[in-house]
Write a structure and sequence with these properties.
Layout lengths: L1 H6 L12 E7 L4 H11 L4 E5 L8 E8 L3 E10 L2 E10 L5 H21 L13 H12 L1 H11 L4 H18 L6 E7 L2 E2 L11 E2 H4 L3 H21 L3 E8 L8 H14 L7 E7 L6 H9 L4 E4 L6 H6 L6 H13 L5 E7 L6 H13 L4 E6 L7 H4 L7 H19 L3 E7 L8 E6 L6 H8 L3 E5 L4 E5 L6 E5 L4 H6 L1 H17 L6
Parallel strand pairs: 1-2, 1-3, 6-9, 6-16, 7-8, 9-10, 10-11, 11-12, 12-13
Antiparallel strand pairs: 3-4, 4-5, 13-15, 14-15, 17-18
């Protein structure tokens, strides 16, 4: 840990993008975890694997040597003419020997990269999607002090992120306690957008290119919703939340949105419903007609997502609206009677600065939303920014970290606290996405899906049904077809897949027989 303290604030400028890294795995098979560890520092590096020692430049060597009583886990990193080393040992009688070897080998490799780059990730060696869920599980098993100690001293997570986990766990528990063994949520995918944002890697299609597909897609989507409702009703499952996402659901017409929402209201048992969210998303798709239709058909919560209130940054990422458009859309939603509105922001967007991000947070708070979700920019190889060479380099991670820290402090000072969190790979600064809300205005669906609290039945292209064992942890997935054209052409097969829901609950009943 002393090494990490000395290196804070002393990042070296090493350009590694677009080249190859060789990873040598000697006497160990921890390829997956070690590759994820390298991705913290080199998110787009092509990695080649070998099982024999090499000392070429741009090579990482990891080795496990088991002695009579102890095993030595060592790592060497050859980079830009320099050699960095680190090693750890584990007793051969350790009760969780294999996992401890994997962890310590990752620690050794991590320390080599920290020495080489001077970059100290706030999440340490932790690469999982659900850090709050892991923290909660450790608290339940060993107590909060032990959980904190493990995060800090075994995973190298910073005090700042540990406190964020603690706050998030408190928010999540208030929501998860509402769920019962026969509860479920419904997700509906409308994967169309006015345009594709430059940072986006979701399966979404511009309305202009997919215009001919939309009517047939909406028709089949309502059929799938009705079929899914028949299954849920047959199993006597209790629908707690509905979430219509995308894409941008408000990219389609008011009539098409109404058809989808009417199918839900008419076919599902809504007696137990606690929340109905529709992502209005892009301000340039928000109209009074659509808002009135959404409100009339039962939505209790919507999102209006500026991502930034900096017009130059909006132009950089391919958004065809202004900050003023966002404000107008928000006020229109208030006028239409919505009293639970979320706004999404992204830290680390190209061209954004800490000062302009602070201005974004200030303008968003002036609208007094019930919740704000702060994402960290996650880049994928397929996104336009990466293809065009505009991906923020490692230095952007430090600025993004300042942004998310500022957002957290400012939102909490305004009475808006974290209630759910998740992480993605290849995120600028290896940072997190956090949902903040006023008390009682948490998005229940977000918590249920991230915590994997209960079953999520999903409809639409690229949607994934996640079946959770009642009173257990086993999860089974049913995948819909990814693209709208495939969803349409193979719809019959999709309906057959849905029968897997019945087979699952036959094996794991939600109700006592």
């Amino acid at each position: 840990m002393e090494i990490l303290r000395r290196l804070r604030g002393k990042e070296k400028t090493i350009c590694l993008r677009g080249k190859k890294m060789k990873l040598c795995l000697i006497n160990n098979s921890f390829k997956y975890e070690l590759e994820k560890l390298i991705r913290i520092f080199l998110p787009f590096e092509k990695i080649e694997f070998c099982s024999v020692r090499a000392e070429d430049d741009r090579t990482a060597v990891t080795e496990l040597l088991k002695g009579d009583k102890y095993t030595v886990l060592s790592a060497e990193l050859f980079l830009s003419g320099e050699r960095f080393t680190d090693e750890n040992t584990v007793n051969n009688s350790h009760p969780d020997y294999e996992k401890e070897c994997e962890r310590l080998l990752a620690v050794s490799l991590y320390n080599c990269f920290v020495k080489a780059s001077g970059y100290v990730p706030q999440w340490g060696i932790l690469t999982g999607v659900r850090p709050a869920k892991l923290f909660s599980r450790l608290c339940t098993a060993d107590g909060e002090n032990a959980a904190e100690d493990w995060f800090k001293n075994a995973l190298f997570v910073s005090d700042n992120k540990i406190s964020l986990c603690k706050e998030t766990v408190e928010g999540e528990r208030r929501v998860t306690s509402m769920s019962t063994s026969d509860s479920f949520s419904l997700y509906i995918s409308i994967p169309f957008c006015p345009t594709r944002c430059a940072y986006c890697s979701f399966v979404s299609h511009s309305v202009a290119n997919a215009k001919k597909l939309i009517p047939e897609y909406i028709k089949l989507l309502t059929d799938e919703i009705k079929h899914t409702a028949e299954i849920a009703n047959r199993l006597n499952l209790k629908l707690q939340t509905v979430y219509i996402g995308g894409g941008t659901p408000t990219s389609v017409t008011a009539e098409e949105l109404s058809a989808v929402m009417s199918a839900v209201a008419e076919k599902f048992n809504m007696s137990y419903l606690r929340e109905f969210t529709v992502e209005a998303g892009r301000p340039d798709t928000v109209t009074k007609e659509k808002l009135n239709a959404i409100k009339k058909l039962g939505a209790t919560r919507i999102s209006i997502n500026p991502q930034t209130m900096n017009d130059t940054v909006l132009e950089n990422i391919g958004r065809r609206h202004t900050a003023a458009d966002t404000e107008n859309a928000f006020l229109l939603a208030r006028e239409c009677g919505f009293d639970n509105i979320n706004m999404d922001l992204i830290a680390g967007l190209p061209g954004d600065t800490l000062e302009s991000f602070k201005n974004t947070v200030s303008r968003v708070l002036s609208l007094n939303p019930e919740s704000v979700t702060v994402h960290s920019l996650a880049m994928k190889r397929s996104s336009a920014l990466n293809v065009n060479g505009m991906f923020p380099e490692a230095r952007a991670g430090a600025v993004a970290a300042q942004m998310v820290d500022y957002a957290r402090a400012t939102l909490e000072n305004s009475g808006i606290f974290p209630y759910y969190m998740y992480r993605q790979s290849k995120t600028v600064g290896n940072l997190e996405n956090v949902g903040y809300s006023k008390e009682g205005r948490e998005c229940l669906y977000n918590v249920y899906t991230m915590d994997e609290t209960h079953t999520i039945l999903a409809c639409g292209a690229s949607a994934v049904t996640k079946l959770r064992e009642p009173n257990g942890d086993y999860i089974e997935r049913i995948f819909n077809f990814k693209y709208p054209y495939e969803y349409i052409s193979r719809f019959g097969e999709l309906k057959e897949r849905k029968e897997g829901i019945l087979r699952f609950y036959e094996k794991y009943p939600a109700h006592d027989k």
